Amino acid sequence: MSLEIKVPTVGESITEVTLAQWLKQDGDYVEMDENIAELESDKATFELPAEKAGILRIIAQEGDTLEIGAVVCAIEEGGAPAADAKTDAPAAAASTAAATTEASENPDSYAAGTASPAAAKILREKGIDPSTIKGTGKDGRITKEDAEKAVAKPAAPKAAEPKSAPAAAPVAVAGERNERREKMSSLRKTIAKRLVAVKNETAMLTTFNEVNMQPIMDLRAKYKDVFKEKHGVGLGFMSFFTKAVTTALKEWPAVNARIENNEIVYSDFADISIAVSAPKGLVVPIIRNANALSLQGIEKEIINLATKARDNKLTIDEMTGGTFTITNGGVFGSMMSTPIINAPQSAILGMHNIVQRPIAENGQVVIRPMMYIALSYDHRIIDGRESVSFLVRVKQLLEDPARLLLEV
C-alpha cells in the first residue's frame, strides 16, 4: 500500500510552492522523517520529509509549481536493500529487457498520459488535449518538456492566396548575440507582484535629508575594540539607525502604523524589518521588539538573521510581520534612491553610501562624511508634517548619538 506525500501548509498567505530539487531518486529506499526534497515558497526554502519508510516514487518534477495539498510523490511498501546484496549482471540485463518489453506491450500504466502539474498548465494555455500527447517520462507520464514541445494540430488549409512580394532579408549583425531564458523563482515572482502592487495601491511619496556621520564614526573609532571585546560583536551603523528609528517611531506613531480595511492599526512596539541580500534574492527578516533592545542586542540579532539569510535558513515566522523597514543601499554604492514600501507597512527608511562632501559648519566650509537618507511613506496614513518631522528626528539622533542613550 502506498502513501501519497502532499505539499504541506507552510503559511496563511502562501498558496503555491516550487519543487526546487529532489534529495533522493525515484526507486530509492527512504527512512521515515528523512528529507526527500526541497520546496521553495515566496518567502523561504524548506525541506519535505518522508512520512513513512519505503520505496520513493516520484510524481512531481523539479521546477514544477505546486499548489498547497498537491501530490509530490508516493512511498510504497518495501524494505531496505540488504547491505551485502550483489547484482547478477546477466540477470539484471535480462530483467531490464523484460521490463522494457512489458512496458512497450502495456503502455497504459497508471501514469501513461498523465501530465505533471507544470505540464498540465502549459497544455491548458496552449489549448492542447493531454490525451494527444505521448509522454516520455516514467511510465508514459507527460513531462514539462513534453508540454513545451507540443504543438496544437494545424487547422485545415485555407485557399491559396495571391503571392505577395518577398519579405526583405534581415540585416546581418556581426558578433555573437546569444540569449538565455531562466524561469523566475517563486521568490522573484512574489517580489515583482508586491512591488507593482505597492506602487499601484498606495499614495507613495519620498522625503529626503542628509546626516553628518562624523559623530557616529568618532564614537565607533573610540569604543569599537572595547565594545567587541565585551559583547563579542562589532559596532556597526545599522544598530545606531535602528535605535534612532525606534526612538522616532514613539514620537510619530503614524509612521509605525498600517491600514487594514477601513481602520488604521497602531503598534506600540517596533518590529524592524532589515533588508538583506540573500543568494535567491532580497529577503526582509525582522528584529522583534527592537525598541527594547540595546545596541549590542540589535547587533547580535542582525548578525544572526544575516547569517541565516545567506544560508537560506530563515523561517517564515522570521520574515512575517514587521512594522517598519530599513534598507541599506549604501553597501552597494548607492548615493540616493527612493525605496519602495514593504507592504502592509506604511514607511521605509533608505540608507546610502557615505561620501566626503564640503558643508557649511559654524560659518566655515568643512569636509564631512555625509549620508543621504530617504523616507518613502504612504501619504494615505502619514501626512507631510509627520514624515518630515520623523526624518528630522532621526537625523538629530544620529548627529548627536548621546541622545540615543539619554533619550532626549
Number of domains: 3
Number of separate helices: 9
From the coordinates shown, what is the CATH architecture of the largest domain? 2-Layer Sandwich
What letter string, H or E per element, gives the SSE order? EEEEEEEEHHHHEHHEEEEEEHEEEEHH
How far the N terminus sits from the C terminus, by CA atoms, comes to 70 Å
CATH topology of the largest domain: Chloramphenicol Acetyltransferase
Main beta-sheet annotation: 7 strands, mixed
Descriptive account of the structure:
The protein is of the alpha+beta class. The chain has 3 domains: 3-79, OB fold (Dihydrolipoamide Acetyltransferase, E2P) (Beta Barrel), CATH 2.40.50.100; 117-149, Dihydrolipoamide Transferase, CATH 4.10.320.10; 186-406, Chloramphenicol Acetyltransferase (2-Layer Sandwich). The protein is 29% helix and 24% strand. It has 9 helices and 19 strands. Strands 9, 12, 15, 16, 17, 18 and 19 form a 7-stranded mixed β-sheet that branches. It is globular, with a radius of gyration of 29 Å.
Summarize this structure as a short list of keywords or feature phrases.
3 domains, Chloramphenicol Acetyltransferase, alpha+beta, Dihydrolipoamide Transferase
In short:
With 408 residues, this protein is an alpha+beta fold. It has helices spanning 89-105, 117-126, 144-149, 186-201, 214-231, 237-251, 295-310, 384-399, 402-406, and strands at 3-6, 16-22, 29-30, 35-40, 45-49, 54-58, 65-67, 71-76, 204-212, 258-260, 263-265, 272-274, 276-278, 281-283, 286-287, 324-328, 347-351, 354-361, 364-378. 29% of the residues lie in helices and 24% in strands.
